[in-house]
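User: Study the chain.
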Amino acid sequence: MKWLTTICSGRSRWSLGVRPSIFGKPAPLWRREAGKGRPLALRASPSCRPQVVAGILRRGEAILICQRRRGGAQGGQWEFPGGKLEPGEEERTALVRELREELGIEAEVGRLLARVRHRYAETGELELAFYEVAAFAGEPENRVFEAIAWVAAAEFGRYDFLAADRPLLELLRQC
């Protein structure tokens, strides 16, 4: 009998063939067609690439940007507010949830501005969807960041943005 275990780490999804052992721990399956002594190959699957959403909030000519907490992953760098989708969650729903958690606002998500894939050496590949926030209720308050700031797009060059967010900067300067 064969069992297939799917492991979804923060970096990628792996499929690993395992079988139960008499000691209660899984033991690797061996490929019959691959010859003797070779384990079943691990295969990366793009379906578990982390999905991230970010919101572009505007106040006149200014756009809200957020600085990651120092000491964390990419600490001190700037980004647009948002976060990872939970399993089975729609992008727009995730963005509304993330903006509520991070900034204490109720957002109305507008159009999709851009979709970017980026690979970080530390965490692997992720896919980001940037949405315009058409409207929001409440005053954004810093609940999880080192700092937040309303900045004109022309001033983005003064800030050290996450690499995954950089492709959007030029687009926002043109809008």
